[in-house]
Write a structure and sequence with these properties.
Elements: H1 8-26, E1 37-38, E2 45-53, H2 60-68, E3 74-78, H3 89-98, E4 102-109, H4 112-118, E5 122-127, E6 139-140, E7 144-146, E8 149-151, E9 156-160, E10 163-167, H5 172-194, H6 199-202
Parallel strand pairs: 2-3, 3-4, 4-5
Antiparallel strand pairs: 1-5, 2-6, 2-9, 7-8, 9-10
Helix pairs in contact: 1-5
Length: 214
């Protein structure tokens, strides 16, 4: 997957399917910790990952990543789940100028109203006014485990109101194809439901009709 140019067709396919369908289609544990949620309703990302690690309460790695990350990247930032204001309006403006298309962080951010107004996609564990120091940079651009899921430079990050998934670059084409097949099947099912069919029938769960509960 190329960092240099955002694949609008790929992003549109991901947006049409959503993270839940893509997660099911992938068939692997690719969903990150569900506590990492969108900062504002409707935020969406579908872009190559650029991973980095921050020490607790220290955001130096982010500043370095803004110079190194290819345009079209989403920053995936591990903080060891430490909640502080690693990111705010200043870094948002810098990220936009650098061509960064979003942020996924298992720590905190601040200036949430300003970020939301700019419509910059941020997915975070929390919001905190606490500032950070700039003293260490454990890792920038290297593979890591993020929210329980492996992530490497160039893996596909898809994030929406339902959560965040990370799909290995080698699995993207297969996952999209499987997701679109799943969506087509669900479309047929929903049409049948609207005509009066039941989920017990369509999901071959009819044998539960005879189950008696005390």
């Amino acid at each position: 997957m190329s960092h240099s140019v955002i694949d609008q067709t790929l992003a549109a396919r991901c947006a049409a399917l959503g993270t839940a369908t893509l997660y099911e289609a992938n068939g692997q544990p690719c969903a990150v910790d569900p506590q990492i949620r969108s900062l504002w309703p409707g935020a969406f990302i579908a872009a190559p990952a650029y991973p980095l690690v921050c020490s607790p309460g220290d955001n130096l790695s982010i500043h370095i990543a803004l110079e190194r990350a290819p345009r079209g990247s989403v920053l995936v930032v591990d903080t060891g789940d430490f909640i502080a204001g690693y990111w705010g309006e200043v870094l948002t403006v810098a990220a936009e100028a650098a061509g960064i298309v979003g942020l996924v962080i298992n720590g905190g951010v601040r200036d949430s109203a300003a970020i939301s107004k700019r419509r910059f996609p941020v997915f975070a564990r929390g919001v905190s006014v606490r500032g950070t120091v700039k003293a260490s940079a454990p890792a920038v651009g290297l593979p890591m485990i993020f929210g329980g899921v492996p992530v490497a430079d160039g893996d596909l990050v898809v994030a929406d109101d339902d959560g965040v998934i990370i799909v290995p670059a080698a699995e993207v084409a297969r996952t999209l194809q499987a997701g679109e097949a799943r969506a087509d099947k669900e479309s047929v099912m929903m049409n049948q439901l609207s005509q009066g069919a039941t989920t017990l029938e369509l999901m071959s769960l009819g044998h539960w009709r005879e189950k008696a509960w005390p």
